[in-house]
Amino acid sequence: MCALRNAPTGAPHVLIVTGMSGAGRSSAAKILEDLDYTVIDNLPPSLLELAVQSHDIPEEHKHLAVVIDSRGGLPIGDLRRALTGLEREGVLARIVFVDADHDVIVRRFEENRRPHPLGRATISEAIRAERDLLSELREMADLVVDTSQLNIHELRQRLTYQFSEDEMTKPMRVSVRSFGFKHGAPRDIDLLFDVRFTPNPHWVPELRDLTGSDERVSAYVLNSEGAKEFVDRVDDLLAFLIPRFQSEGKSYLSIGVGCTGGHHRSVAIAEELGERISRHDLHAVVRHRDINR
Length: 293
Hints:
Helix content: 25-40%
Shape: globular
CATH architecture of the largest domain: 3-Layer(aba) Sandwich
Strand order of the largest sheet: 2-3-1-4-5
Number of domains: 2
CATH topology of the largest domain: Rossmann fold
Distance between the termini: 34 Å
């Protein structure tokens, strides 16, 4: 995470938008422009403090989004020094990293017929090189947005909820996503829970072709040994964590629930967790990534 955790809560004065080429970084910048952020593209990290000063930030209703990418290399040391300087000045800054799966980025470059900015022999080589270059910056990010399965409207909704002034007073939005580990764990998850300790309905003939949304499968999973205690403990954990996340200015929490294939156990438990979260007067959205695979 970045160094500005003790800054005042609220809409960030400065957003540093970065991430993988082809993942939607430019689209994110355009969305932020629509949210009344002044956007500067391809700014060297060494000029970040100067850009903030020249735009009279912090000042009420003034917000700046700076796009930093791999085109000119990425001196992480310069960025860390700039963030420390902004913190001293009371400027609230956050890093947003836009990412996507390797195959998705390859497909996007092939469809658009654009060269990768790193200019390697193949697109795949360029993507791997860029991911290595940006790995430390991704670790610093306050928010990772994985656009692999997002369209432009869903990306707009996500960023609007996260960074619009009008949205900052709303309660935390919680996303609960079921998935199958054999298809890979989602990248943009804040909390991940593995529920493969519960019995698998796949081995019950009358349940195999159903999903965790079916009442029979749900009852089989949730009534198994340890399942109810697990959900109770996660509920207690979230009751402890969420107010503390909110006090740090976090308005979006993503929870992953994984089983083997993403059809039965993770679906049933994700549905139950979504119901529990809603009882705490929070907006919970439950999605099942792999239910139809």
